[in-house]
Design a protein that fits this description.
Structural class: alpha/beta
Number of helices: 13
Radius of gyration: 20 Å
Strand content: 5-15%
Distance between the termini: 40 Å
């Protein structure tokens, strides 16, 4: 727990220096509920929230991302003592596709999907009963199969929510792809897909359940002003500009998409959050940025992305 203690101290330190961390997201490249000291970690978070709110009158949200594969009622309740937002990754309701997406094994899909639905049901019950402040279902990881199944998945999720007597379900979509550490290779499914489905489902009632559509992009960039601010960075990358990513041993990643932490900017022990935030704004692209589809130079042909690519290109020319 030493790394977590140092991190929480850094968050409080940053607030005193004028940098407010809006949300602390517990995520990674493995299932978060695998953590051997999950109960202890979220007990620390609960203490941190009380301490921070008492001092500042507000506090960061604490969230956790899960695919549900290891959730039990007991370990779920242990994290709910501190979690404000639970983000449940659920790419598709198609069993074969679920197996391929999660383990590249269609034959395992039915078993894996049933386990995920069992866990999602428990999470929905906690949300319905007021024991979980906010539940978001992430239609991720984004890939061609999850896109093809989108309508079927929406029917499935709203029917499940209806059976559990929920009056709404919060669906999170991604307005553009991320390269997910190089795992996404499909081309041509950027923004148009999501915009069409946003218009189709947002605010609508499906199977008696109101659909609230959210964009993960807005977690990091609440307004266009926050996006424009990134253009002041030496390398104006959207993924790098809105977050600070820390690996399990306290190293600052250059970017959340660098799953192996090949390029780091110091550690929690040595560098404050304010310092690393300044470093991120002043750094050049890392060698790993060249093939990333979130590098402004590699962004897609969507009109908004074209505009950002143009503006970022000008900024980098004069860096």
């Amino acid at each position: 727990m030493e790394t977590l203690d140092v991190f929480l101290r850094r968050v409080e330190e940053a607030r005193g220096e004028g940098l407010f961390i809006k949300e602390i997201i517990n995520s990674g490249y493995g299932e978060t509920f695998m953590h051997k000291k999950l109960d202890e970690a979220f007990s620390r978070y609960a203490d941190f929230k009380r301490r921070f709110a008492k001092k500042w009158g507000h506090r960061p949200d604490i969230s956790i991302v899960t695919n549900g594969s290891l959730i039990t009622p007991e370990n779920l309740d242990s994290v709910l003592r501190a979690v404000d937002i639970l983000k449940f990754s659920f790419p598709t309701s198609n069993p074969e596709h679920y197996g391929m997406i999660m383990q590249r094994n269609a034959a395992e899909g039915r078993h894996l999907l049933d386990r995920a639905v069992e866990s999602l049901t428990v999470c929905m019950e906690r949300y319905r009963d007021g024991r979980l402040s906010e539940l978001r279902v992430h239609l991720s990881p984004p890939c061609q199969q999850s896109f093809e199944d989108f309508d079927e998945t929406m029917q499935f999720l709203t029917r499940l929510a209806s059976r559990l007597h929920l009056d709404n379900i919060r669906i999170v979509i991604f307005p553009s792809t991320s390269n997910r550490a190089g795992e996404v290779s499909e081309e041509g499914f950027i923004n148009n897909f999501y915009r069409a489905h946003q218009r189709r489902y947002a605010g609508k009632v499906l199977n008696g359940v109101k659909v609230v559509m959210l964009s993960e992009f807005n977690v990091f960039y609440p307004t266009y002003f926050h996006v424009v601010r990134v253009l002041a960075d030496r390398f104006p990358c959207i993924w790098k500009g809105g977050s600070i990513s820390i690996n399990s041993v306290g190293g600052y990643r250059y970017c959340i998409n660098d799953s192996e932490s090949l390029y780091t900017l110091g550690s929690l022990d040595e560098t404050s959050l304010v310092e690393v935030f300044r470093k991120l704004r002043l750094t050049d692209p890392s060698p790993g940025c060249s093939g990333c589809n979130q590098n402004p130079a590699n962004m897609g042909d969507d009109p908004v992305q074209r505009l950002y690519r143009f503006a970022a290109g000008i900024r980098m020319k004069f860096s």
